[in-house]
Design a protein that fits this description.
The structure is a homodimer of 255-residue chains. Chain A is α/β, with parallel strands linked by helices and 255 residues long. Chain A has eight helices and 14 strands.
Chain lengths: 255, 255
């Protein structure tokens, strides 16, 4: 099977012009099929503030009322996504900026209200493997922002890590998928204060032990849960690393 | 040759929820290949105002400094484009929201500064016929907003009427293209105050006469210039009408 690389970048890449420019240059040079998934949270918070809309975060997740959904749709799908697309085109990469609504690529259900009402937040229900493959077969590089839809005309906010792993899982029937999460650290660290304590290979048993010991905590947990879910569901390789590193320098998630 | 319908809608459709909903339902039901082009000017002006950015218009054209380009990229490519896309998907139309940067579909040159500096405004240089045809062949309906790029990473604002006619012209080698401009009047009127004075067929000679007499003026002139340019360059039919009308009830532009 042909290799498909799915890379997710977050605020630490997007908010730094130089890091972003290097990253996009490297990304454009991947010769085999590839997909980029991006967040853009800090810019959304800044624009929301200018519009007098308060940002409410809960366990790292954005509470998305109607006004905040407008902001994220503007910032993620407009400002961030189209500037990334234009810059990738300048690097010779045939980029196509997307939300889950486009081509019905990612359909989601509005998260049910239990104790917390997240608002217009969607949990991924289906990724349109055929449409996505039609794009890849046409030498097109999909650039996904963190938005999905419900199939009934409603846009929904969806975590970018989750979009990356769901897309990777969906395409793993057709491609040997490599999923890379880029973040601010060199990899998953044994000691969060020591950048040289990168765990090169992490399996699920060790992850559970490290989680219980408290060595892995907070923001790393949903990221690793997404990573292990991807591996369990057919993704060939998951790597967690800083954007400028080579794959072998980060943390490889193993079965 | 197969028919391709290119429809342009402006603020009078986008800003009215009911008109928009009817329009999208009708649009979704066109069985042959189709492309939608939309503006979104009033929403951009409203968001800009909330962000404390002043809107400057000159002869109906928006002066686009860096801050205004951010606003139009957010509003056109994000808010308006993705909501149209999600709603069309709900109507069973396989919509794909686009700017000219996506797939390098529409490349433009920044307008040279003569007496007026329009800022980040682009004049269309090339429409990527092959990429657009790959989408149409895949049963995909492109939804263009009023943005292009320069191929070097820079987004540019471009008039939606112009995008519609340039796209129509570019595709006329491959399809029998019908270009429809939807606007607030029933068609081109002989007397602007009489909605029943629709000119059913307008040729270029008559247009010149009516322009000289002052019967056709201001905002209609660039629209009709785009329309006649399209007809001269191979577009089979151009119609100017209100969104809810049938083609034969508006004005048909003839050679």
């Amino acid at each position: 099977m042909q290799t498909l690389t799915v890379i997710k970048i977050g605020g630490n890449v997007i908010d730094n012009e130089l890091t972003l420019s290097h990253f996009l240059q490297d990304f454009a040079q991947i010769a085999s099929p590839k997909i980029l998934v991006h967040g853009g949270g800090k810019i959304a918070t800044r624009i929301a503030e200018k519009l007098g809309i308060e940002t409410q975060m809960l366990e790292g997740r954005r509470i998305t009322d109607s006004k905040m959904l407008e902001v994220t749709t503007m910032v993620y799908a407009g400002l961030v996504n189209k500037n990334l697309t234009a810059q990738l085109q300048a690097h010779g990469c045939n980029a196509l900026g997307l939300t889950g609504a486009d081509l019905d690529l990612i359909r989601a259900d509005k998260r049910p209200v239990k104790t917390i009402d997240y608002g217009w937040v969607g949990d991924v229900k289906a990724v349109n493997q055929n449409q996505l493959d039609y794009l890849l077969k046409g030498n097109i590089t999909p650039i996904f922002c963190a938005l999905t839809h419900n199939g009934q005309g409603q846009m929904l906010n969806t975590n970018a890590d989750t979009i990356a792993s769901e897309v990777a899982i969906a395409m793993s029937g057709l491609y040997a998928v490599k999923l890379v999460f880029c973040f601010e650290k060199r990899g998953v660290l044994l000691d969060v204060n020591d950048e040289n304590s990168v765990i090169n290979n992490l399996n699920e048993a060790d992850y559970q032990v490290l989680k219980e010991k408290g060595a892995i905590h907070s923001g790393m947990i949903p990221k690793l849960d997404n990573a292990f879910a991807a591996i369990r569901k057919g993704v060939e390789k998951v790597i967690i690393r800083a954007p400028h590193l080579a794959d072998h320098e980060g943390t490889t998630i193993a079965w």
